[in-house]
Design goal:
With 423 residues, the chain is mainly alpha-helical. 76% of the residues lie in helices and 0% in strands.
Length: 423
């Protein structure tokens, strides 16, 4: 039997709790953006290659994306607070066990466990629930929650480095695992579930904003969603949008060192600017999309990213390199912020948990493809990333075509396949 939320369909009591709890949960997920600080100690402690240990990040992110789908489905039967508790247990246990093993296979396995736990908490059990609480400001709510993950990296990266320096990698992972479990277990107790059909008091859906050719959005389950051309276009749009961001985030320090000829320590300042740009993009573009519409923001994101990438391929000055890399991250943050609201806009809020989880898998794809393209092209071009930036810029231009195609499909608003019974 599907979960029946106990709250009434109107009112604001759960909005503050959902926003606060979701934001704290997202901050714990910021460890994913800090994962790079673990790689060098991991390789040094065990004598593994950098390429070998870098796959722990792929395992962490891929299982996190898979968990978003699973937890989205489970929300039809289990309260989000229970999923946050389960996710916190897996996240914490994965990190503790990761600090207690010595074989490469076990390291991959427990990185995957930690990633699955992280994805269950954020975005799985928090994003779709928060968006249902904020139908009036879904872009703002999603952006704020996504920004929490970025801000978490500001805390966890230096903390992890300090713990590794004071103890060692194994004890740092054990301590972080225990801290995350305790924090998420406590956090789970204050989360409330958004009731079906929730609307804030005094607010009504803005039907007057629909054009004359639009038809009301129908709730479509994941099977019906994946049969629509609109899903295919939107999925490709998010892959194209997040790919260049992952390319820069995944190689931020090496890119800065290669172009500017600076030390890894000096490159750290640019990596911090990348994080700031990403966090700012999540909040700013989420708010803007609520006011001017998602399609206009998508077009702006692809255009700004393309210009920044082309400029980055031809500039050698510190300000230009730092500004362009932060600009790409600013656009990347926007795509992450709009993923949940756009999925709800196109396919309705009822099945958003699973639908958003499937859409979020674009991040797993881009987290593998983007850095891989950058590495392969740089290796083939004597260490230079310039051609990789031009490839990413061309993909951004293709993204503009996808924005146009998506806008046409929304304008036609063809009747969507009826939602099939959930088994």
């Amino acid at each position: 039997m599907a979960l029946q939320a106990p709250q009434t369909a109107r009112g604001g009591g759960g909005r503050g709790a959902a926003r606060g709890a979701g934001g704290l949960g997202a901050r714990t997920a910021g460890l994913g953006y800090s994962w790079s600080v673990l790689l060098k100690p991991m390789a040094g402690d065990h004598g593994w290659s950098a390429a070998d240990v870098s796959l722990t990040f792929s395992a962490f992110m891929t299982l996190g994306a898979l968990a978003a789908i699973v937890s989205g489905k489970l929300q039809q039967y289990v309260q989000p607070r229970t999923l946050v508790l389960i996710g916190g247990a897996l996240f914490g246990a994965g990190l503790v066990l990761l600090g207690s093993v010595h074989s490469l296979g076990a390291v991959y396995a427990f990185a995957a466990v930690a990633g699955f736990g992280m994805g269950t908490v954020y975005p799985g059990a928090t994003m779709s629930n928060l968006i249902r609480f904020f139908p009036d400001r879904s872009g703002f709510a999603s952006g704020l929650l996504s920004a929490g993950a970025g801000l978490g990296a500001v805390v966890w990266a230096p903390l992890a480095v300090a713990l590794i320096g004071h103890f060692d990698l194994a004890w740092a992972l054990r301590i972080l695992g225990i801290v995350f479990f305790v924090a998420l277990a406590s956090l789970s107790r204050i989360i409330r579930t958004a009731p079906a059909g929730y609307t804030p008091a005094g607010w009504a859906p803005p039907h007057e904003r629909m054009s004359a050719t639009d038809r009301p959005v129908r709730d479509v389950d994941w099977k019906g969603m994946m049969r629509t051309p609109q899903f295919v276009v939107l999925f490709l749009l998010f892959v194209a949008g997040t790919l260049s961001g992952m390319m820069v985030i995944g190689h931020g320090s090496p890119i800065a060192q290669q172009i500017l000829g600076i030390t890894p320590e000096a490159a750290g300042a640019i990596v911090s600017l990348i994080a700031v740009g990403m966090v700012a993009g999540k909040v700013v573009w989420g708010v803007v999309s609520d006011k001017v519409g998602r399609s206009a923001v998508f077009a702006a994101l692809f255009l700004i990213a393309a210009v920044a990438l082309v400029t980055l391929a031809h500039t050698t000055g510190y300000a230009g390199v730092a500004g362009c890399m932060a600009g790409v991250a600013f656009c990347y943050g926007g795509f992450l912020a709009l993923m949940g609201p756009m999925t709800a806009d196109d396919f309705g809020p009822t099945y958003l948990g699973v639908n958003f989880g499937i859409m979020f898998f674009t991040v797993a794809i881009s987290s593998f493809v983007g850095p891989r393209i950058a590495a392969v092209v740089a290796d083939a071009d004597g260490g230079s990333f310039s051609k990789a930036f031009l490839i990413a810029a061309a993909i951004s231009v293709l993204g503009l075509v996808l924005v146009g195609a998506h806008a046409l499909l929304r304008r036609r608003r063809l009747p969507a396949p009826a939602a099939e019974p959930e088994g």
